[in-house]
Every structure is written in structure tokens, then in C-alpha cells.
Amino acid sequence: MRHIVAMGGGGFSMEPDNLALDRYVLSLVEADKPKVCFIPTASADSEDYTRRFYEAFEGLGCEASHLSLFWPHRLDFDDFMMAQDVIYVGGGNTRNLLLLWKDWGLDSAIRKAYENGTVLAGISAGANCWFEEFSTDSMGPLAPWKGLGWLNGSFCPHYDGESDRRPSLKRMLDEGEMGPGFACDDGVAAHYIDENLYQFVSSRPSAMAYRVEVGEETPIQPKVLV
Questions:
Q1: Catalytic site residue 158?
Q2: Which domain holds residue 184?
Q3: What are phi and psi of 157, to 5 degrees?
Q4: Distance from C-alpha of 31 to C-alpha of 20, rounded to nearest angstrom
Q5: Does the chain have fewer CB atoms within 10 Å around its N or its C terminus?
Q6: Based on the structure, what is the number of domains in the chain?
Q7: Closest by alpha carbon to 146, among 157, 134, 130?
Q8: Residue 185: Cβ within 10 Å count
Q9: What is the spatial distance between Cα 186 and Cα 188, in angstroms, rounded to a whole number?
Q10: How many CA atoms lie within 13 A of 46 on its CB side?
């Protein structure tokens, strides 16, 4: 089975004392000591972000690693990605992430690993990228942008965490700039199996997911992780 876990917000970078979403990602892997690679491209390979990843995932008993494109320390992308149990993509600028991945051919390497059973996970930009389109502030004001298209529909993260997310998404949908899809509050993740939505999970009891389309927003209660 192929797994993608797209987080609207949360995880080690936003909830360092509540790693419920990260533990959920690891629960999809059978390995006793999962190999987890962090890809911080969207944050310009932030050293602090990467350090926090290592602290969190080594603390969860993983064999942690990362892949940098700004300061490349390896170019065997295909082999390195295929060796991972989980590829975890960090947040930041989704447009830059997609441009750099395509220029370096990293998207192809990740796709091969995904088709071979590696779990894909990510937050914000690291969730946006898998969908056909998404809402992003990569260019300044929130605007629609095209993703990799591995998952159908559109995606919007931080739905309750940033005040302009909801009204801007409504405008994009109503004006036909973006198609229907899902929005996730901080702390909520959409779990896809074989490119089909399986369920929403949440690290926070009050956080919600939403089906969004022209003129309509339908709340979806996620499964709250203990």
C-alpha cells in the first residue's frame, strides 16, 4: 500500500510536546527502527528546523537523516530515497520546493520510493506539494498554485491558524481559480492510501477538516489521536 499523510499543521515543528501526528506516521511502518529522512527544501534547508527534526525523531527511536539541496551532501537521490521507510517534508515556501525538486530531479526519486512503499508525510508546504493544486503564500498574498498532482483535488493548510486562509480560499473557489478539495486546521492530517482518502486524524480535540467547494464548506470530524 502507498501512504501519504498531509498535515495542515502540527507535528514536531509546531507541537514539540505533542508528537501524536508524527507517531501516527511512524505507525504505518513495520520497521523496529524506522529510517526517516527529512527534506527541508521549503525552508531553504533551515539548520534549526533540521536540528529539531533530529531531536524529535531520534527521540522516537528512528534512524533519522536529512537531504539538503542548498548544501548537497549526496547526489544518489534514487538510492537514498528508496532506502527510507518515511520521507518527511517540512514547511515553508511550496513554490520554491517544487521548482527545486523538479530542477534537481528529486520529485522523480521520491515518486519511485513512494511507489516502492515508502511513506510520504509533510506539513504545510510539505502537504501542499502532493495535490493537484493548493493555497499558498509563497508569492506574498495567498494564491492558488499547481502541485505534483499525485493526489486529486486541492488542499489548504493552517485553516484555523491563519486568519486570511478561510476568506481567501472561499474567494479562489467562488472565482474558479481553484477546484474543490480539503482544508485542514492546525493539528489535522489527511491520510491517503493508494491515492484515495482513508481518514482524517487530529492531535487536538477541537481541530477539524473541511470539504470545500464553490459556495459550500462541510466540516469533517477527524479521528482524535490519543
A1: yes
A2: 3-224
A3: -90, 175
A4: 18
A5: C
A6: 1
A7: 134
A8: 23
A9: 6
A10: 16
Cell for 101?
Answer: 525538486
- The CB-side HSE value for 3 (13 A sphere, CA atoms) comes to 21
CATH number of the domain that residue 113 is part of:
3.40.50.880
How far CA 189 is from CA of 71, 135, 185, in Å, comes to 30, 16, 8
Query: What pLDDT, on a 0 to 100 scale, did the predictor assign at position 141?
Result: 86
What is residue 136's predicted lDDT score, i.e. its pLDDT? Answer: 87
* The 151-156 sheet, strands edge to edge: 143-146, 131-136, 151-156, 181-184, 209-213, 216-220
Q: Quick one: average pLDDT of 69-91?
A: 94
Question: Mean pLDDT for the chain?
Answer: 96
Which pLDDT value is given to residue 140? Answer: 80
pTM, to two decimals: 0.96
- Given 13, 43, 46, 124, the catalytic residue: 124
What are the grid coordinates assigned to 158, written together? 493552517
Grid coordinates of 114:
513512494
pLDDT digits (tens, 9 = 90+) for 165-189: 999 999 999 999 999 999 999 999 9
Burial (CB < 10 A; 0-12, 13-18, 19+), residue 110, is buried
Q: Indicate if 124 belongs to the active site.
A: yes
For residue 105 the three cell numbers come to 530531479
Catalytic residue, chosen from 13, 158, 191, 202, is: 158
For range 148-153, the mean pLDDT: 98
DSSP-derived letter for residue 91 is P
Cα torsion 82, 98, 178, 217: sign: positive
Task: Note whether 183 and 169 are within 8 A (CB).
Answer: yes
- Pairing mode, strands 188-193 and 151-156: unpaired
Query: What spatial distance separates the first Cα and last Cα of the chain, rounded to whole Å?
Result: 24
